[in-house]
Design goal:
The chain is an alpha/beta fold. The protein has one domain: Uracil-DNA Glycosylase, subunit E (3-Layer(aba) Sandwich), CATH 3.40.470.10. 39% of the residues lie in helices and 12% in strands. Strands 1-3-2-4-6-5 form a six-stranded mixed beta sheet, sandwiched between helices. A hairpin with a 2-residue loop joins strand 5 and strand 6 (133-138). It starts with a helix and ends in a 43-residue tail after the last helix. The model is unreliable at 194-219 (pLDDT under 50).
Length: 219
């Protein structure tokens, strides 16, 4: 983290509605974000905002952050030590905002809640991650803009959000009234998701095309 902090113009902690039911978690600030101190304000951010608006979701109604809060030099990938250094900040943001839905944008945020998959395999999937939350894995908007096929998949995955958000809002309303949560909604008392152990050298590899229903639970 010190190396990133020394090279930044300013930190980019995140912004948005602190009472939202959905939080977007990207990779790290880029050039524009580093200059403005705001997440997702460059080309990929504009695309994300436009996609949300087409779905009837205002950017001001969600919260947006990144796994690292300072721009990596030359927009390189965050290094493991940098991800670890910023992990506590992200955990505190999740605890404070307490979203019911966490949308991971790209492989680095995906690995926090989908450590056993690749972005091309798990994008669009929904996982119960405990404490009444789900995570939804998606391509990063920047990657979607570079690859027409991924752009199609990104927009299809994003289209899953409105009904999930509506259900999450109804769950919060029910909880506020002391009523039972709607069917299929994770309970806040659920334990945190525990990543599966790495298979031993003698264990056969899992099939790439299998649907692991024991780990993926729909909201």
């Amino acid at each position: 983290m010190p190396a990133l902090a020394e090279g930044r113009t300013q930190a980019v902690p995140g912004e948005g509605n602190l009472n939202t039911v959905v939080m977007f978690v990207g990779e790290g600030p880029g050039f524009d974000e580093d200059r403005q101190g705001r997440p997702f304000v460059g080309r990929s951010g504009q695309y994300l905002t436009e996609t949300l608006e087409r779905l009837g979701i205002a950017r001001s109604d969600v919260y947006i952050t990144n796994v690292v809060k300072c721009r990596p030099p030359k927009n390189r990938d965050p290094q493991p030590a940098e991800l670890e250094a910023c992990a506590d900040y992200l955990e505190q943001q999740v605890a404070i905002i307490n979203p019911r839905i966490i949308v991971t944008l790209g492989r680095f945020s995906m690995k926090r809640w989908f450590p056993d998959g690749s972005i091309t395999r798990v994008h669009g999937q929904v996982r119960n991650i405990g404490r009444g939350r789900i995570a939804v894995a998606m391509f990063h908007p920047a990657a979607a803009l570079r690859n027409p096929q991924w752009q199609t998949e990104f927009e299809k995955d994003m289209a899953k959000l409105p009904p999930l958000i509506e259900r999450a809002q109804r769950a919060n309303q029910a909880a506020a009234r002391g009523e039972a949560l709607p069917a299929g909604v994770p309970h806040p008392g659920d334990p945190d998701y525990v990543p599966p152990q790495e298979p031993s050298a003698s264990a056969p590899p899992a099939g790439d095309d299998g649907d692991d229903s024991s780990q993926l639970m729909l909201f």
